[in-house]
Design brief:
Layout (H helix, E strand, L loop, with lengths): L2 H9 L8 E10 L12 E12 L2 H18 L3 E10 L14 E6 L4 E4 L31 E6 L2 E7 L6 H12 L16 H7 L8 E5 L8 E4 L3 E2 L7 H37 L1
Antiparallel strand pairs: 1-2, 1-3, 2-7, 3-4, 4-5, 6-7, 6-10, 7-8, 8-9
Length: 276
């Protein structure tokens, strides 16, 4: 398999020839309780099914009808999810609650992001559910960005500690597996794997489409969030809160730096002992 073939599979995941439906889900921002004046560091949303359609085009049309309806009630839409499900299949999932595809839109109906493989259990470890990374242009956040994380019906502040993994990163991993590089392989076995053998042993799935975030002054507070559950800031962030989350990120970087120094010191110590 060439890189171009690998990239083509990453960008256009093979699909089963079957009928699917599209579910439109709307998330609305709840009114702030009591005397609370700011939505941050966390606020509540509510979600409900807008409707179900035969095609993506129909689903997007229905989404825009929902936007017009919401204007009458002066409610604030947080975002929309459009999820695709096959007809006549068992609804088993492997980490994220979506079927064959999931698309994210903002409160005005503008497309933001999408998934790159099926999350159905029946597609796990098959060509339909194999995740091969994201194109660079799809990364909406970089390390150090303060973001919003949608967690059920709650939105909370966090700091992205990375951008996820690119197609190029997964291609390099695919090549390392092919060459049998790493602790899992015997150094005596020099035979390269065939493409089919690599595909059999290489199975990142929908759960790997994630971005690590922290919400405290240590990587111990980190969480791996599906990329489509991360949004940019919707509201002005106070200087106090911005400084707090910026300091979280700085503290994490310092923690990582100290960890690397300890690892290097221990490695040097081991080398010294082996030489005596």
């Amino acid at each position: 398999m060439t890189y171009e073939e690998f990239k083509a599979l990453a960008l256009n995941q093979p699909r089963r020839d079957e009928e699917t439906i599209f579910e439109v889900i709307e998330y609305d921002v709840k009114d702030l309780p009591g005397r609370k004046r700011s939505h941050y560091p966390k606020f509540d949303v509510r979600h409900y099914r807008v409707g179900i359609c035969h095609t993506l085009s129909e689903a997007e049309t229905l989404m825009h009808k929902a936007i017009e309806r919401t204007k009458k009630y002066n409610e604030e839409i947080y975002c929309f999810h459009i999820k695709e499900y096959p007809m006549g299949e068992l609804m088993d999932f492997i980490w994220e609650n979506y079927g064959e595809s999931w698309r994210l839109y903002d409160g005005q109906g503008r497309f933001l992001d999408k998934t790159y493989c099926s999350a159905l259990e029946c597609d796990h470890r098959t060509i339909y559910g194999r995740y091969r990374g994201r194109p660079e242009e799809s990364f909406r956040f970089k390390a150090g960005d303060i973001v919003e994380v949608l967690d059920g019906d709650e939105v909370r502040l966090a700091v992205a500690t990375g951008s996820g993994r690119s197609i190029e990163w997964y291609w390099e991993m695919w090549q390392r597996i092919k060459r049998k590089e790493g602790l899992l392989y015997s150094s005596d076995d020099k035979r390269e794997m065939t493409d089919d053998e690599v595909e059999e042993s290489y199975f990142p799935d929908a759960s790997d489409d994630q971005t690590p975030v922290i919400d405290g002054p240590s990587y111990a507070t980190h969480d791996h969030v599906h990329t489509l559950n991360i949004m940019p800031l919707h509201y002005p962030l106070s200087k106090k809160l911005r400084l707090r989350y910026e300091n979280y990120y700085k503290a994490m970087l310092k923690e990582e730096e100290e960890y690397i120094k300890r690892e290097e010191a221990e490695e040097k110590g081991s080398e010294t002992l082996s030489q005596t």
